[in-house]
Amino acid sequence: MNDDIATDSAPAVVLVVDDNATNRYIIASWLSRSGHTVIEAADGTETLAILASGADPAPEIVVLDVRLPDMSGYEVCEAIKATPHTAGMPVIHVSASAVTSADRIQGLHRGADAYLTEPIDPDELLATVTAALRYARARRRAEALAARLTALNRTTLEVYRAIGFHSFAQAATTGATTLMGCRAAAVFLSPQGQAVHTTATAGRRPVSRPVRADLLVRLTQHTLGSDTGADLTTIPQALWNSLLPHDPVDEDVTVVLARTKRGRPPVCLAVPAGAVTTSDDHDLFLQLAQACALSLEALRTYNEEHSLALTLQRTFLPERLPEVPGTTLAVRYIPATDQAEIGGDFYEATETDAGLLLAIGDVVGHSLAAAAVMGELRHALRAYAVEGHDPATILQRLDTLLIRLRPGITMTVCMVLIEHGNRRIHVSNGGHIPPLLLYPDGTAAFVPQHSALLGLGLPHPTAVTRDVPPGTRLLLVTDGLVEERGKDLDLTLEQFRRAASSGSRNLEALCDDLLQRFGTAKDDDIAVLAAQLD
Q1: Closest CA relative to residue 39, chosen from 52, 26, 58
Q2: Average pLDDT value for the chain
Q3: pLDDT tens across 3-21, in order?
Q4: Do β-strands 411-419 and 424-430 pair in parallel, antiparallel, or remain unpaired?
Q5: CA 305 to CA 263: how far, in whole Å?
Q6: DSSP state of 364
Q7: For residue 360, what are the CA distances in angstroms to 345, 367, 404?
Q8: How far is 230 from 220, CA to CA, in rounded Å?
Q9: Phi-psi region of 35 (alpha: psi -120 to 50; beta: other; left: phi over 0)
């Protein structure tokens, strides 16, 4: 007999219901001699009152006479089964008068778990009580395990959904608290190499604080070591308090450490030792730690790759802006949020024989490949400009280059050539957000003329020419700044035009203001290239 069967067959608190005191005494004496604790009731009203009172100890099983003075045992049984907190309580009908097969069938149909008729054999009654308890306890244990598995699954999804190390720590500790039903803690290493200790209590937000960097190393000395996988051990109270003196505990602590790759810092989860007593507790705690380790490794790897990709992306952009007399330039480049892939936004500013050429563009797509194509096309654009080609010709050559070398990829680009003297500009726009001119008198207008985006092989007309008075400012932006899902672009562009025309006269401050108003919490790269023509 294994431990679960022995536990399920253990004596219980039994509620014996019979209006005949002699019958109650006899049944109660049989049960008491077998180790059960007996509570007695004389009718249905008293029975339901006892069950509703929350008495401690509470009855686990009811031995119920069918004939009662105030209501039938069938009705009492139905009321027990209809109440949520007693619905799983076994009910055994006994009767000296309702002994026909129809009576037994009715009792079982109306919720009874067993039906005994007098004369009742004491051993049969005790065996029936034990069998009913064993089944009910096993079912409750299975239901509790199912609920905990659901909690484990929910927590696993939450840690996999985490988009940063802070949200990961919250999901892991909150999940451990829910799964183990107690206060929980976690220790992990941040991307900056800082050991972080997070604690969570039911109903409260997790609290995180930095701790000694060697804490995880010291914990692995007690379990796991340099191995991969997950391992569990119990750390004495005094030792745990010496490791984490800022968060003392009053009992031993069970910790599980898990890692998925050698050489990587592990994840540590910790709960009071009293919370891990059964094999189910042990297995669920290990599974949670393994899920956290997998999630953290994926998150760590993604952050490393994303950081590398951003570094590579920035190498494709100009190192500095040219210094041109009479022209002030400002630029802003904001990568997408950490959880998004890198994009293909770029900008360029280069001096040519005809004047200063400004360009801004976006390779369609979000991937390292899009960023690589962006780098190729920006260098090609710069080369064509240095060769002396006008903006319309550069647009056409970029289109040809894209079709031949990167078929299937498209891009948008807007180029503005500022003639020497800053009195005339030439605009060639291949499907990009139109450039915005801010005039000294406070008015503002887009240059709306544009051709198709590049990569389609469509013709591109000659550049649009505009005369501009001294003090005119020019804004070139990518769609990440002004586009919003589900919102009409023309409406957003009009809001952008008004905000820019009423914004700061200082170019740097204007860029910052526009980013603050339009560029917050965007999931796309943002580039802004601004010029003031004095």
Answers
A1: 58
A2: 87
A3: 566 778 899 999 999 999 9
A4: antiparallel
A5: 18
A6: S
A7: 8, 19, 22
A8: 11
A9: left
* Token representation of residue 481: 């700044």
pLDDT by residue (tens digit) across 180-214?
Answer: 999 999 988 877 778 888 888 887 888 888 888 78
- For residues 67 and 97, is the Cβ–Cβ distance under 8 A? yes
DSSP state of 56: S
Q: How confident is the model at residue 306 (pLDDT cuts 50, 70, 90)?
A: low
Furthest-apart CA atoms within the chain: distance in Å: 117
Structure token digits, residue 245: 């003196």
Q: Can you tell me whether residue 142 is helix, strand or coil?
A: helix
Q: Answer for the pair 342, 335: CB distance below 8 angstroms, yes or no.
A: yes
The 3-state secondary structure of 274-285 reads HHCCCHHHHHHH
Q: What pTM, to 2 d.p., does this model score?
A: 0.61
Other beta carbons within 10 angstroms of residue 488's beta carbon come to 9
Which residue, among 294, 295, 280, has the nearest Cα to 179 in the 3D structure?
A: 280
Q: Check residue 267 and give its pLDDT.
A: 87
Q: How buried is 484 (Cβ within 10 angstroms: 0-12 exposed, 13-18 middle, 19+ buried)?
A: exposed
Mean per-residue pLDDT for 456-480?
89
Q: Which residue type does 413 have? A: V
CA dist 529 to 103, 143, 148, 212, 357, Å? Answer: 89, 62, 54, 45, 12
Q: Phi/psi of residue 486, each to 5°?
A: 75, 5
Calpha distance 64→76 (Å, rounded): 9
Pairing mode, strands 327-334 and 344-352: unpaired
Q: Does 167 or 22 have the greater pLDDT score?
A: 22
Q: Which of 209, 235, 207 is nearest to 221 (CA)?
A: 235
Ordered strands of the 184-189 beta sheet: 207-210, 195-200, 184-189, 267-272, 253-259, 229-235
Helices (H), 191-230: 215-220
- Asked if residue 425 lies in contact with residue 474, where contact means CB atoms within 8 angstroms, the answer is yes
Measure Cα distances from 471 to 32, 326, 352, 412, 508 in Å.
101, 10, 22, 28, 15
